[in-house]
Amino acid sequence: MADPMMKSDSSNPFTSVPVEITISVGKARPLIGDLLNMNENSVLPLDKRVDDPVELYVGDKLIARGELEELEGGQEGQLAVRLTEVAEFESGL
Predict the structure, then answer these.
(1) Cα–Cα dist 49/67, whole Å
(2) What confidence score (pLDDT) does residue 86 get?
(3) Start and end of every Flagellar motor switch protein FliN-like C-terminal domain (predicted)?
(4) Is the whole-model pTM more than 0.90?
(5) What is the mean pLDDT of each run of 10 residues along the chain (93 residues)?
(6) Residue 82 covered by a domain
(7) Would you list the DSSP string of 46-92?
(8) Residue 3's pLDDT is what?
(9) Is there a domain that residue 88 lies in?
(10) Which residues, at least 6 apart from 48, have a Cβ–Cβ distance to it below 8 Å?
(11) What 3-state class would DSSP assign to 22?
(12) In angstroms, rounded to a whole number, what is the distance separating the alpha carbons of residues 23 and 79?
């Protein structure tokens, strides 16, 4: 039996409510001393590589993974995410 709250049609008023998605490309764990010595040209290494998947979150809930790419037809250099894995909301990713 379908869940009536999961409708994707326009009769559901929640379909037009915007939601903010945070894209996480990685984490850094510098020492506080290193952080205090950072300046405008400092480099902060992350725990991910350029080709690693990014993670998409709504609040603290992981909802998908994807790959960064440049948006075609958009403003030059504008980033986008191509989804490669989407969470099943019953059990997570």
Answers:
(1) 12
(2) 97
(3) 16-87
(4) no
(5) 50 92 96 96 95 96 96 88 90 57
(6) yes
(7) -SS-TTSPEEEEETTEEEEEEEEEEPTTSSTT-EEEEEEEE-BTTTB
(8) 44
(9) yes
(10) 25, 26, 27
(11) strand
(12) 11
> Rounded to 5 degrees, what are φ and ψ at 47?
-85, 10
Determine the residue type at 74. Answer: G
E strand or H helix at 32, and its extent? helix 32-36
pLDDT at 4: 43
Contact yes or no for 81/68 (Cβ under 8 A)? yes
Q: What is the pLDDT of residue 47?
A: 97
CA-CA distance, 63 to 85, in Å (whole number)? 9
The pLDDT of residue 5 is 43
Number of domains in the chain: 1
Q: Of 85, 27, 80, 23, which is closest to residue 56 (Cα–Cα)? A: 23
Residue 3 lies in a domain: no
